[in-house]
Amino acid sequence: MTDILNAFVLLANFVLIPGLAYGSQLALGALGVTMVYSVLRFSNFAHGELMSFGAMFCVLITWGLQSAGISITPLPTALLALPAAILLTIALALMTDKLVFSYYRRQRSETVTYLIVSVGVMFFIGGLIRFIIGPDDRVFADGQRFLLKARTFKDATGLSEGLAIKTSQGVTIILAFVVVAALFWFLNRTKTGKSMRAYSDNEDLALLSGINPERVVMITWIITGALAALAGTLYGLDKSYKPFTYLSLLLPIFASAIVGGVGSPIGAIAGGYVIAFSELLVTFAYKKVISYLTFEQVVPEGLVQLLSTDYKIAVSFVILLIVLLIRPTGLFSGKTI
Amino acid sequence: MNTPSDDTKKRQERNLTLFGVLVVLFVFVGMAQSWNVSLAILNLCLISAIMTLGVNIQWGYAGIVNFGVMGFAALGGLAGVLVSMPPVAASWQAGGPELLLGGAIIMITIVLAVFAASKTQHLGRWRFWIIVGVSLTGYFLLRLLVDPAIEAIESINPAKAGHIGGLGLPILLSWVVGGIFAAGAAYVIGKASLGLRSDYLAIATLGISEIVVYVLKNEDWLARGVKNVNGLPRPVPYEVDLQATAWVSELAARLGADVNELSSIIVKLCYAGLFILVLAILFWLFETALRSPWGRMMRAIRDNEVAANAMGKHVTAKHLQVFVLGSAVIGVAGAMLTTLDGQFTPHSYLPLRFTFLIWIMVIVGGSGNNFGSVLGGFIIWFFWVESEPLGLWLMDVITMPLDANNPLKMHLLASAAHMRLMTMGLLMLLMLRFAPQGLIPEIKR
Prior knowledge:
The complex is a heterodimer of chains A (337) and B (445). Chain A is mostly helical. In chain A, 72% of the residues lie in helices and 1% in strands.
């Protein structure tokens, strides 16, 4: 019995908790991509940089607060800086729309044009970020490091495997849950949310019903900016803030959105967790779990790993390709919110 | 009223001016910095121009969004290693047969999976699991049989070898092989994903190119992964040998130049000659193709797929054709780049540099026009390299009134190097907005 518990705790420590945290970060990112897609109808390649932009301001403001001696231990100071970073990211999102994307909307450009334009935006924001903060690694997490320490868990339960929960992981999971709940409430219960869904469902019909498209677009960018800043900051808190990682994060995020079904918020969330857990499950070394669950003689020699950890991110690309080739509409086939 | 010939004349004058400006720029860098720098930039401009031609035939002729440029360039680079490096005999002894067996297993698995997919359409949901079962069995068999061999190969002299080496053939051959590698990959990728919508295709190709680079980074037995392969053989003479020859010293004496510098200029000129030859051949081929009925058909498909289909053109097959062709050209350029560098460094393949920068070149130069693509390749690469000194100079001027120890001034000077990403993004956005056709627009025929 203890062996089974030990095996379970081992999996929880290395797969379940990190998977939930990483999955929540991906889900928040994918929600932003999906919002833009369902209202503005293009895949926004600049979304990764938008996340990075929010995280960058969070880092800068956190430094300011830290040097002023303000903190909210045990929670990380970054949470205090988050609202301001979100506002700045929203401002950037609205500005890019005003200066760049609105023109192509008026021209009724094709999807491809938007796609290429968003690459230009990606370059610009990426450069801006490196110009402001530089390309280096920045650690800005402070406060208490662990919610639950492996040692405490071991002492309390008497198991030989420990379970550790980092503060950043706990904060990520809780914040993601709250924000997603609020978003769904907004989309399904408020008048503005319903008008957005109507617009994304059928543009012409929405126009005829007197919905103001500019307002819908503006709200979409506000939500997208907020989600991006939140996702970027949480990812930065959990790992560390490094500008170039956000470009490589873009593909897992697209993968999450597409696996779930682009345009479907529930799909984006499900996709985020599917991608996160498959990355971890495929690269997890099962040797110890097997040794807990079976007799010693059957335990194989190697690590019992499906793929080496070097390929972690590549797993999400492979899933992305399989879904694109077999079922391009994703798990929750949706084109509308 | 402008007659057509007037238009053509004007256009030709404009093009000449644009290329003339380029020549002036290179001469200026040659005078102001050094001819070595100028030629180094020129060589990379030539390679960029070839990559741009490859993307242009896909995007400009046929409207296919290929964001996998990086992957094809990396495959070309791999060809450089596999063709030119001497074979490592010990590695082949240690694990050669197993590697060949592994290759056979991969082939058989793919054939079986495709066979299963085509024969089980009536089986409903079982079909999926049969295909998954076949693939997984193949994968586990592969790991079981080949893993020990790979470990053995990687442990042979890991500081210098630890991989299978190459064929020991002249590296110029790898330019063709690189094209073939990229074409083969493009055939598989295109077959599977060209049916996708444009933005899905973009994401899929971007993902595939990342996977290609991941494999190259981590499969040490193939080309040493992140440990890099250095000292690839050269198609041109070495500087040291040149310095020893009589005519170089004589020429240096007559020109009053340094022998070392002159020898490295000669080497760069040799490379430039080779690259110009390749560019000229490809350019001529592509121009001919564009004017031919084939080019007309491609444009027809791009402008209206439904109409072209109704006229009896097989849209998917033609898309595949042009995708393979363009990717092959990118592969050739990738092999040329590895040849020029003399080394294969998988970690240097970044999407920003190899995919998106090439796209900026096509957009700025003018999609659908080969002259435009080449011009875009030259201009963008030139400013990509030169924007660093330019940015530094600009920052120096802007912060002139500030004290040398002013934190803002120090920050601005330190960040000047990152100006180029911003400049490129801005340039691309401005072009897309105000001159979406590029510097040299497509000619309406």
